[in-house]
Amino acid sequence: MSLAGAPLVEFVEGVLDGVVQIGGLESSTPVVLVSNSMARQALRTARGGEEVMWHEGVPLSSVLPERGDRDLLDELRLTHLTGLSRRAVQVWRDPDGVARSTLDYVMTRLSDGSVVWSFRDESEAARSAVSATAAVHDVLTGLPNRQLLRQRLLEAQRRLLLTGRQFAVVFVDLDGLRTVNNSFGHVVGDELLRVAGLRLASMVRDADTVARLGGDEFVMLIEGMARPDEVAAFYHRMRDSLGAPLTVAGVSVRIAASIGVVLDPDPHADPDDVLHNADAAMYEAKEAGGGRAVVYDETQRPSLMGRLVTAGELVQASTRNEFVLHYQPVVDLLTGQQAGCEALLRWQHPSRGLLSPAAFLEAAEASDEIMVMSEWAFNEAVRQVAVWEREFDLTYYRIGVNFAPRQFASTNVVAMVEATLERHGVEGSRMVVEITESDVLDSRSASARQIVALRDLGLRVAVDDFGAGHNSMSWLRDLPVDIIKVDRTLVSPDPTQREEDILAAIVGIARAIGADVVMEGIEQVRQIEVARRCAVRFGQGYLLGRGMAATDDALPVSLPGALPPP
């Protein structure tokens, strides 16, 4: 098993120990197969600063100091012959006997007979050099960190001014890393990050830079990229490189990414502003559904920056407990009794006041923060139900909670729901999980299987916004749907006969699969009259009651007199 030509070549370049793979130990002239920069630096120090040409196949003797190399060769050959790993210390001295290098090393034979010699220079000078390297490199991937990236970006801007050599800044965000961490643990997530770093590094030339900013964010500086068509070609290569299956701890995962690109950056701009613009373009790619590339457009800067600011504030909102739930009643249109309510997420923004999801949902869905918010909302709704159950009979009362589509891509959503119900002592039958068609592509998907598992916990399943998109009858047939919530756009405040006919058809479908129907967006009495004629049992909307903050001593109630007599 040679390291040459494998991803490990890039990996060993990022580690802080010297690594050299040596072949041909059965011959009189062993050769270097692979080496990293730390090894080359340490051996240059041991040679008193003498430079040599490193390349695959260079004789080992030409890169070692003359003094003491015979002992080292003997140790390497012994490791090759016996297959036993060896650990020792090698000291190389100058002609006056002063130690230049003190290498604490380990030798290990690989299956192809080559030996990997890894070492750390324990001299004071070497420790200082390692510390300096570590300060500007990411610990997990060995790639340059933000500090070194900023320095190289400044250098690229200077070259642009002096020579006109163009370059691009590519901001890369891995899609779904939080889902991987939640589903399989951080060990798998960290390995995914390391492999992503290796694959990105394998795409670029020596003149380019690949850096990791932290989390799932990488930045690439690509020399000579100046046109949108070059961005498209580059992204397709990146997608193919990252998308190769990866198996970690028996788990098979794939890496996907969204990228934002700044072409021909202003050479006078602050590097942080350039990175910010690339980040904004990447964010737009995320908002558009992810898995794509977006080139930054200066004319879109205000709206992009606004959404980027919102995304940053959302992270703070989670830690500052700024989210609240308001509960909108669902009413039995025949009896006027409360049948339940829907938990609606609101953001109590410190300066903008109470915000509905329309002000922040796109920003949340473009980041992993939507997962945090959705889990918080479900936990808070279940907690409130537990309080209400101590005061009221909720036998026929159900509380609906909207689940983010990305939650169903995480295999831990069922475990999360089960643990939340158990923590608060609430039966699953009290809760309704509200989904949209985009949550479920087909009845065979992993998302569909998780919805079935949630129903097995006793939760009822409601199809939200039915009629607003391209609904597929097949998944209504195959999945356990309990409630169809007719979208507000399907029946207007002044319903036409055609709208009434469509509503009646939906009721017929619901009856066929044994589902209840809730008509959303009721604002006028005429809508209630149409709903009753079509045998729609339940309604929800401003006419019946707006969302309201929860109180422990009262359930959300409909507005008095809102419901006309049958």
**Computed Rg:** 31 Å
Full CATH superfamily name of the largest domain: EAL domain
What is the molecular shape? elongated
Determine the strand fraction and express it as a percent band.
15-25%
Largest sheet: 8 strands, mixed, barrel
Strand order, largest beta sheet: 13-14-16-17-18-19-20-21
Helix count, per DSSP? 17
- What oligomeric state do the depicted chains represent? single chain
Tally the beta strands. Answer: 22
CATH domain fold name of the largest domain: TIM Barrel
Brief characterization of the structure:
With 566 residues, the protein is α/β, with parallel strands linked by helices. The protein has three domains: 8-135, PAS domain (Beta-Lactamase), CATH 3.30.450.20; 146-296, Alpha-Beta Plaits, CATH 3.30.70.270; 317-549, EAL domain (TIM Barrel, Alpha-Beta Barrel), CATH 3.20.20. Helices cover 39% and strands 23% of the residues.
